[in-house]
Automatic annotation (TrEMBL):
Cofactor(s) demanded: heme
Native species: Maritimibacter dapengensis
Function: Membrane-anchoring subunit of succinate dehydrogenase (SDH).
Domain of life: Bacteria
Pfam family, one: Sdh_cyt
This protein's name: Succinate dehydrogenase hydrophobic membrane anchor subunit
Subunit text: Part of an enzyme complex containing four subunits: a flavoprotein, an iron-sulfur protein, plus two membrane-anchoring proteins, SdhC and SdhD.
């Protein structure tokens, strides 16, 4: 790090120039999840064990549907960011790149399936 200027050290911009942005994205997604988890769990737990019609009526309300979709997207983003850091730290070479791509696809698939399920239930299809 002795070749970095004082400004680069303060900004935290290393060789990839993405560390600070990744750090803040992960912290912001964690803060968003502090609010989204209770807002998602409350209607989910309230309707646990009810029939399809009761659950559909609960998620037909736009607020519940939007919160559920935001929850799935934010959880998948936060999951990927955390797993990416672990893979970058402990797995090197081509296998690390393959695992990062696989985790990105898996987290995107999770977000899409969750959003699709909520939209499908809320619209009553």
């Amino acid at each position: 790090m002795r070749f970095l200027t004082d400004r680069k050290r303060v900004e935290g911009l290393g060789s990839a120039k993405q560390g600070t942005g990744h750090f803040w994205e992960q912290r912001l997604s964690a803060i968003a999840l502090l609010f989204l988890v209770p807002l998602f769990v409350l209607p989910f737990a309230y309707n646990l064990g009810d029939g399809y019609e009761e659950v559909r009526a609960a998620y037909a309300h736009p607020v519940n549907a939007v919160i559920a979709i935001a929850f799935f997207v934010t959880v998948s983003l936060h999951f990927f960011q955390g797993v990416q850091v672990v893979i970058e730290d402990y797995v090197h070479g081509r296998l690390g790149m393959i695992l990062i791509i696989a985790m990105r696809l898996l987290s995107t698939l999770f977000a899409l399936i969750g959003a699709y399920a909520v939209i499908r239930i809320s619209l009553g299809a």
